[in-house]
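Course assignment 3, question 2. Fill in each field.
Student: A.L.
Task: Predict the tertiary structure for the chain below.
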Amino acid sequence: EVQVVESGGGLVQPGGSLTLSCAASGFTFSSYAMGWFRQAPGKEREFVSSIAWNHVTYYADSVKGRFTISRDNTKNTVSLQMNSLKPEDTAVYCCKVTLDETEYWGQGTQVTVSS
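Answer field:
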């Protein structure tokens, strides 16, 4: 059974940092790209960042230079280091993997940026 489970969310002040983690199981982790998405209240879900099997990374313009995605194929985890957080980064952050055109999502972790 494919599973992706996020952790690490919380409340942080503007300008602060937070690291999210996504633990995956049930598939050959090292062979697949992993992605982070977020959904703010009243808004559509949007792409944040992804990392390919070969560690090539992609970022949304809104987080480029502030967020860093990485993966550890020995632990089957993907992390999202978030720096210089802004109130507009407040959202539920979800991890996703696509296997044979089927998407698997985690339950999400809440990130709130507020003073």
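Instructor remarks: The mean pLDDT is 97. The chain is about 0% helix and 55% strand.
Grade: pending
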